[in-house]
Design a protein that fits this description.
By secondary structure, the chain is α+β, with helices and mostly antiparallel strands. The chain has 5 domains: 100 residues, Rossmann fold; 70 residues, 2-Layer Sandwich (Dna Ligase, domain 1), CATH 3.30.1490; 219 residues, D-amino Acid Aminotransferase, Chain A, domain 1 (2-Layer Sandwich), CATH 3.30.470.20; 111 residues, Glycoprotein, Type 4 Pilin (2-Layer Sandwich); 73 residues, OB fold (Dihydrolipoamide Acetyltransferase, E2P) (Beta Barrel), CATH 2.40.50. It has 17 helices and 40 strands. The chain has a 9-stranded antiparallel beta sheet with strand order 14-13-10-11-12-15-23-21-20. Strands 25-26-27-28-29-30-31-32 form an 8-stranded antiparallel barrel. A 5-stranded parallel beta sheet has the order 3-2-1-4-5. The radius of gyration is 27 Å and the shape is globular.
Length: 657
């Protein structure tokens, strides 16, 4: 029997496991690094143990520290969550060797499925089709390039030891193979400590469909249905749903039978996911087995009524899988990431000024909606871990109803202080092609219009100007309501990115203001401004806008899930502003420098690769924006660079001659 459980993870999954422990009467213990000292999962757990510095290899990936933490709190069991050590066979063995229960599959099953190459061999032996490709022992560039030519382009390069898009490259032409192999090896080695690669034929417009399986120690393996996970960016999922719009009952049965056959072939126990690619002719091919709970497991929970975390714990205690599974309705999940979709999904870091979700406590909203979150107002999003912040999941009787409920819940979220993908998710859910279910893994690449930030509407500029007027007129000691000429309006100028907007505010008494934006005139009646919510009537339309003041000049303003950072431009003279000097390239986010490809004195052309940085488990390629001469390189491979620092100096060609 498990009386105390150590969660060897962080973020929303740690919070979710703690919640289930409470429901079962199990004491919970968390672990945390420097970056997570004030994290929500640390506060929610019954106790917590510090395990080291912020970089994951020195904390969450450090097996000995996790085992020591479990022993320190006298835990009976360890739950790995997902990510970090969840699919590490050595960790599973270390947990068991320490006399603890590992809430997951046996180490041998993890080891077998941890190698994509071995997993494909097992699937092939079980009679399951696999994607044509190469998974041989010869890992030389020459052999891999020759095999790619034989398979035919386009192909996918994949890391054998892991998933999540790490070490994955799509290659369209033979001449790109050498660079792609080098990048995939480097990323795979960094993420998994194993740079073994495999090749697969690129299926044109594939769908990603996975089957949730559970096994128990009594020899039974069952399938809990499928999940459609085709909406992806950087080979990582954004939207997941069940049932898949692409499957009929006959195909569903066949895919579930194939997944169970693979699970039985390796004596699988506990939660696992068998992943498949589905082509346009509805042929399915085995990809891999994720030997852990998946991020998207809540959609399966909502349609089956099962608590999969609870089932994991019960099976770890020797329990059995359910005899009968009944599914009803349709569930859709959206992942909220700290990232900027308009700029190639660049990860975002910094302080969360405000996080407001309808549930307020990361608990179930109702039987039809769930929010799992690992953040709160005041939290800091660091560059050291995955940028996932929260998940929103909705259930409906039909797919249309589930999508509508999900979109409505996302619209109520306030996330200020860091850039996120919430507004992008809402645009995606409303896209006509997505609504019909006609999706595949290239959906986002085909719809770049979904990524663009449309910019603040008039309501947002007005709200920021009113908030600044109220602030400067009350608590700052600057009474902007007093003017020698009472008919002269108050002018506020805000900047959003490169766009500046002047707003003229004329107080008319009793909370009524005249507003001028360019050639457009409005009347605004202020109803209420409290708890970060501004309710105003603009030209007869009453709406509520969320705000957060982020420093002397910054306002985060948002509505309907969208959020914009507006910088108030002080009309008084100020010291010289900090601007990026021409000819310098700055770090787009804090992260590690993985590789440097240029040196001082080197001539480059626009598009040349200069550096590669890594942050939040993603690689970012720093390329020359113009032709010129490198006049200085300030970081070497292995260095850590803060956001905004000058990485190197690049003198434009026109001024270097």
């Amino acid at each position: 029997m498990i009386r105390k459980l150590l969660i060897a993870n962080r973020g929303e999954i740690a919070c979710r496991i703690i919640k289930t422990c409470r429901e079962l009467g199990i004491a919970s213990a968390a672990v945390f690094s420097d970056a997570d000292a004030q994290a929500l999962h640390v506060e929610l757990a019954d106790e917590a143990v510090f395990i080291g510095p912020s970089p994951a290899p020195e904390s969450y990936l450090h097996i000995e520290k996790i085992i020591a933490a479990a022993q320190r709190v006298d835990a009976d069991a360890v739950h790995p969550g997902y990510g970090f050590l969840a699919e590490n066979a050595a960790f599973a063995r270390a947990v068991v060797a320490a006399g603890l229960i590992f809430v997951g599959p046996p180490a041998d099953a993890i080891a077998q499925m941890g190698s994509k190459i071995e997993a494909k061999r097992i699937a092939r032996a079980a009679g399951v089709d696999i994607v044509p490709g190469y998974d041989g022992d010869d890992q030389s560039d020459a052999r891999l390039i020759a095999e790619a030519d034989a398979i035919g382009f386009p192909i996918m390069i994949k890391a054998s030891a892991g998933g999540g898009g790490k070490g994955m490259r799509e290659v369209l032409r033979a001449e790109d193979m050498a660079e792609a192999l080098a990048g995939a090896r480097r990323e795979a080695q960094q993420a998994f400590g194993d740079d073994t690669l495999m090749l697969e034929k690129r299926i044109v417009r594939p769908r990603h469909v996975e089957i949730q399986i559970f096994g128990d120690s009594h020899g039974r393996v069952i399938a809990l249905g499928e999940r459609e996970c085709s909406i992806q960016r950087r080979h990582q999922k954004i939207i997941e749903e069940t049932p898949s719009p692409a499957l009929d009952e006959a195909l569903r049965v066949r895919m579930c039978e194939a997944a169970v056959a693979i699970g039985q072939a390796i004596g699988y126990v506990n939660a696992g996911t068998v992943e498949f690619i589905l082509d346009a002719e509805r042929n399915f091919y085995f990809l891999e087995v994720n030997t852990r709970l998946q991020v998207e497991h809540p959609v399966t929970e909502l349609v089956t009524g099962l608590d999969l975390v609870r089932l994991q714990i019960e099976i770890a205690e020797g329990g059995s899988v359910p005899d009968k599974i009944e599914a009803a309705g349709h569930a859709v999940e959206a992942r909220i990431y700290a990232e900027d979709p308009a700029h190639d999904f660049l990860p975002a870091t910094g302080a969360v000024l405000r996080w407001h979700a309808p549930d307020q406590a990361a608990a179930r909203l109702s039987s039809s909606a769930v929010i799992d979150s690992g953040i709160r107002s005041g939290a800091t999003v660091s560059p050291f871990y995955d940028p996932t912040l929260a998940k929103v999941i909705a259930l409906g009787k039909t797919r249309d109803e589930a999508i509508r409920r999900l979109n409505h819940t996302l619209a109520q979220i306030r996330l200020f202080g860091i850039r996120s993908n919430v507004a992008f998710l809402r645009r995606l859910l409303a896209d006509p092609e997505f609504v019909t279910g006609a999706v595949d893994t290239g959906f986002i690449d085909r719809h770049p219009e979904l990524l663009a930030d449309p910019g603040p509407p008039a309501l947002i500029w007005i709200a920021a100007a009113l908030a600044q007027t109220i602030r400067t007129g009350s608590d700052s000691g600057i009474n902007t309501h007093f003017r020698n000429n009472p008919y002269r309006p108050i002018q506020h100028t805000f900047a959003h990115g490169d766009t500046e907007q002047a707003i003229m505010i004329t107080p008319r008494g009793n909370g009524v203001f005249g507003v001028q934006i360019g050639a457009s005139s409005h009347e605004a009646h202020l109803f209420a401004f409290r708890d970060g919510e501004l309710t105003i009537n603009v030209d007869g339309h009453v709406q509520t806008v969320g705000l957060a003041h982020g420093g002397e000049c910054d306002w985060w303003v948002g509505q309907a899930g969208a959020a914009w950072l507006l910088r108030w431009i002080d009309p008084l003279p100020v010291g010289g502003s900090r601007t990026q000097a021409e000819g310098s390239l700055r770090a787009p986010m804090p992260g590690n420098v993985l590789a440097v490809y240029v040196s001082a004195g080197q001539h480059v052309v626009a598009g040349d690769l200069l550096m590669i940085m890594e942050a939040m488990k993603m690689e970012h390629r720093i390329k020359a924006p113009y032709a010129g001469v490198v006049t200085g390189v300030h970081f070497a491979a292995g260095d850590f660079a803060q956001a905004g620092v000058v990485l190197l100096d690049l003198q434009p060609e026109s001024s270097s001659t």
